[in-house]
Amino acid sequence: MKQMQVKFMTIFGAVLGSMLVWAGSAAAEARFTDLQHSKWAEDGITYMAKRGTVAGYGNGRFMPERNVTRAQSVTFMVRELYSQELQQAAKGMTYSDVQSTHPFYLEIAIAAKHGLASGFPDGTFHPDAPISRAETAAFLTRAYSLAEGKQPVRLKDTAQHWAAAPILIMSSNGLIGGYTDGTYRPDRPVTRAEFTVFMTRVIRFERQAAIQAHDWDKLMSYMTVSEQVGQMLMPDIRQWNGQVTTTVNDGLKRSIHDHDLGGLILFDKNIVDMRQVTTLTHDMQMESGDIPLFLGIDQEGGVVKRIPGGTNLPGQMALGATGDAALAETAGRLTGEELKALGLQVNFAPVLDINSNPDNPIIGMRSFGSNADLVARLGLASIKGLRQTGVIAAVKHFPGHGDTAVDSHLGMPVLNHNRERLDAVELKPFKAAIDNGVEMIMTAHIAFPAVDNEHVISLKDGSSVPIPATLSKKVLTGLLRDELGYQGIIISDAFTMDAIAQHFGENKAVVRAVSAGVDIILMPQDPAAAHQTLVNAVRNGTIPAENIHASVKRILEMKSKYGLFDRSDNLAQKLSALNGVIGSEEHRKVEREIAERAVTLLAGRDGTNPDQIQQGDRVVIAAADAEQAKQLEKQLIQAANNLSLKTEITVIGQGKTNAALQVMDKADYVILASYQFRNVASQFGWTDYQTLIDEMNRQNKRYTLVSLGNPYETIFLKNVRSGVAVYGKQEANTAAGIKALLGKLKAGGVLPVATGQSMVSGH
Questions:
Q1: Are 172 and 267 in the same domain?
Q2: pTM to 2 decimals?
């Protein structure tokens, strides 16, 4: 017997005479039409055909009941074990009856070279003779390193047979069986269906043994190139037949199986409620075969949230305002507990970007703040909390998306800082995370000329565009792996984002990303094309097989470390546990604590408190969005039920300022809500807000500017006499802000971003 070599290449395509039609890369798509009387073998035949090991006779025929010949049997094994050698001419045939014109000459020569199959004493091989059940057991035990198993064997007719030993090994492992009368019938010929099923059983047995032993090199030796590169893809779940995907439909099944997917990312569109998403994740894992899926989601908290009915924490900048690492760790832990209960193992959080640019249109309050040390400290605590629950923290966006004025979803940001600045600011949290064992890092679609100044011609407009970090070997291999010593998984940001999609073309970008050092491609626009592109790139040598091997090994090791191969919990158990975890009172308490401790005084007449709402006040709530105003009004009424308040709402914005002024003129107190996010701060409609503030100051009216989004009002508004920041428009954030206006809560948060100048309080 021999130790199986690591298999990196699938079988090359060729026509092997008239006996079998070899389908090459099309083998995975084989659909045989003559298996109706061999349903018992259909799974095995489909499995081995997809692996490129067995093939049909053309026109959809497999001929399952036809006897398999000795030549065909060794051909199947050589295709499985020594596919690379088939690309080279084999010499030194030892059998006198196998001429170079035989359609399986190469395979038989390779089999002889490696001792897979034996000939007869007269030096012949009898290539076209049917193989017997005894020979099948002997061939397979030579090909694979099988030891005697523990299952009892009671076969009447094998003890004195020449193949007794290999039959015992196969039978004691449950890989071959006898007939109902207790016989094995070792000299009976084997059909193509039977031989294919025997091989399927052996391969699956060996794969399972490798998984149980955590021998990932061995497991990879049984993985085709299709399976290996499939582990490196994590698409989103798109619509199927015009319907949003919320269940494991036929389209999702085909995608998982045809592309051998290693993971999937879920979005709001895939989520109805907690029971549905738990059922969906469970069913997807059941479809995944013997290698489980990474199932990921963006649950940053605050503005980026996914958990249905769950605890949506007030967001990272709110945590930044508390400055409390213990609270950040608790936040990470409870987020992990809820994700784990839903069947999700990868959280694309925390954000380690340092939001030092107020004009950043995409990061903003998703960041802990503008101070590198604060971001590093709270980021490490969040990672620790997630890790405690068995959820992988995928930190983002390396090397840093905080100081950009372009959204990489829409264009190509370029960060022109020198290397000294990158080391001191952007890279600092990532270095800290690496030093503390972070296991997954997401790349940024941002160019960093100080690290890699290569340019290419854009497919979008023919201009010269810089290479973003996601596609840069200097950034991912040179900086991240070699210089910073990172050993974990590198996952790209979404390939649907325009910074990649428009300029580089997806197929070229996929190859370039993997060549640069990316282990997992997130959200390819066309998963089927991305998969085939990577298969082709490995086959033609564009991407070295060793690179794929390294990435897949990292992925398998991580899946094992986080218990994904342990599928002991059934769906009923998962569903019954949900109510005690998702949105539990314990978790809600933490949500409220973060929101309340985050409330930050931006301005106050006494330098300590915002203007207070008083008994009997007529309160006008002014916001750019009517629904937001109604939410604040509802929360105010609930929190101030003993103050006999009268409330009214008004909408502010371009063309609405005069109407808002008329409503506010009658108010005793005004809540002026500002929400700035996903836009360039300097281009926000500050003029309308300044007009309202100036008029309230003229009337010496009590009011508070409530910052619900990025807290950069300090830069653009003057003479604000009362203001607080709550860092989000979620109910927990706004409820905490209302408490501060009622005097029930001290605004004790610290502004976590530098604003360059402070508001000026006037009298």
A1: no
A2: 0.91
